[in-house]
Amino acid sequence: MVELTDGLFFQEYLNYEGGKFSKSHNRGVFGPSAKETGIPASVWRYYLLSTRPETADATFSWDDCVG
Fold it and tell me: Which residues form the domain of 27?
């Protein structure tokens, strides 16, 4: 299900380095820690949009993000 209205909605998941993002387990990249990396917001936006899960789960990878 993809719906383009006020945002992007997907049924698939963006995983983190082979596992699931988990706020309760502090696994993933969240606002304050993303800012602390020094990576410009435009780079974050591009990377996340280019790896977004459209038809299958996708994985966030630091090597892909900064490489």
Answer: 3-66
Per-residue H/E/C for 3-64: EECCCEECCCCEEECCECCECCCCECCCHHHHHHCCCCHHHHHHHHHHCCCCCCCEEECHHH
Residue 15 has pLDDT above 70, yes or no: yes
Neighbours of 37 (CB within 10 A): 13
Q: Are 52 and 14 in contact (CB under 8 A)?
A: yes
pTM of the shown model:
0.67
58 closest CA partner among 13, 11, 1, 23: 13
Count of domains for the chain = 1
